[in-house]
């Protein structure tokens, strides 16, 4: 399917690996110019070079911490006038509800709520003025089905979801859509780190921990970054202009709800 976004300029945050990379690749495949970001310059440059070579599009790599004001400024300055924004950052660490301090919450809110909000505040006016834009925020299935150990993530991402619910309806009339993609378990470094934590906590091997998690997913497997990226590219496509303020679960059926 032609997504109709060839030549659009996309900023994909936190994209040297994992789900962000999946989104950057799918948008490059659709013919977009892609501005990529991560903190580690080496992995970022390597991924950018691979995508450039594979899809023949312009790829700009900006090494910066997207959760800091200075990092965001650097990324936004390099990105310039963007048509598509995909927000993403690393997730907060797991832990115990009774241990989290105010500082832990502030860090989580900064990374997974206030950072995407700041990026939207910077990008939406230009998109609205030009009458076309797409924003996709990578959040988590935890927004619909909280995991106790990820309370910092549950809190920050639910806050972002509330902001998007109201804002998406305010900008839709200008041709700009905002939606959230909610990953369930995907085969990325983040999944490996959560499996490692589960294996340690339960006193089982990594393989056993992984098999147990896979068994809890109706699809019987983890998702891939490529399928996640394809869903993101569709939400950014010309065909998705009537999809507004939605929270789309990509979880292999793990969250057991009717709607
Ligand atoms: P990942 O494989 O660990 O990749 C994270 C990417 O983000 C890397 O490119 C990393 O590069 C970059 N990054 C992290 N912090 C950054 C920062 N402050 N500034 C700029 N770049 C940053 O993670 P993932 O699995 O793709 O997860 C992406 C998001 O989805 C996370 O928020 C995660 O919590 C959430 N999520 C993932 C899953 C899953 O199963 N994978 C499920 C639910 C939610 P550098 O380290 O070099 O910066």
What does this molecule look like?
The protein is of the alpha/beta class. Helices cover 47% and strands 14% of the residues. The protein contains 8 helices and 7 strands, in the order E-H-E-H-E-H-E-H-E-H-E-H-H-H-E. The chain has helices at 18-29, 41-55, 69-79, 102-130, 151-171, 189-202, 206-215, 225-235, and strands at 9-12, 33-38, 59-63, 84-87, 133-138, 176-183, 247-250. It has a 7-stranded parallel sheet with strand order 3-2-1-4-5-6-7, sandwiched between helices. Helix 6 (189-202) packs across helix 7 (206-215). The longest helix has 29 residues, at 102-130. It starts with 8 loop residues before the first strand and ends in a 9-residue tail after the last strand. The structure holds NADP nicotinamide-adenine-dinucleotide phosphate.
